[in-house]
Design a protein that fits this description.
single chain; 203 residues; mainly alpha; 65% helix
Length: 203
Amino acid sequence: GLHDKTAFAAEVASDPFRDTPVTDLLAGLRGKDVVVSFVESYGRSVVENPKFAAPVDAGQSEPRSIEKRRKDTAMGLFSKDIKSMEDLFIHTLQDVYYAENQIIRALPKMIEKSSNRELSSGLREHLRETQNQVKRLEQVFEKLGNTPKSTDCPGIDGLISEADDIAGEVEDAKVLNAAVIGCEQSVEHYEISRYGTLIAWAE
């Protein structure tokens, strides 16, 4: 939360553009398409402020200490468990293993939605490749002396969720096929980037 509301109020009250004509504001964007997005984040408040932490704890099997809350909110590459390049490599391997398994679950839905024969065939081939890739990843885990394990990957979850949302909104078959192709490309690029990173680290 705000530690000094008076200082905040003073900052808000000071508007250097107060007397600027509306037509002169953001003039460089005139005639251009603009996307405005807002990101709301409670940050540490949801961890430490009882007002927010209590409802979160209510959904847990047992109350969490502040330290436990902080640990639970640590995500991905910023986890305290990662202390070496080997830790980082294994974590990313687990990330990819999770992603590939999620893709295997998602592809049948995309195949079902596709009405284009070539597109459906390509998606089926991607499904077979992904199933084989999961087996290869399990072999890598074994060679490294680790049990195959997944770690949640918000990135692939977001891509798959977006694909479901888009596909659910499109009625025109041709447009739907185009949407499926776009989503498939996003997933493919994600895979390429993660494997590229693993290869670079392995070398």
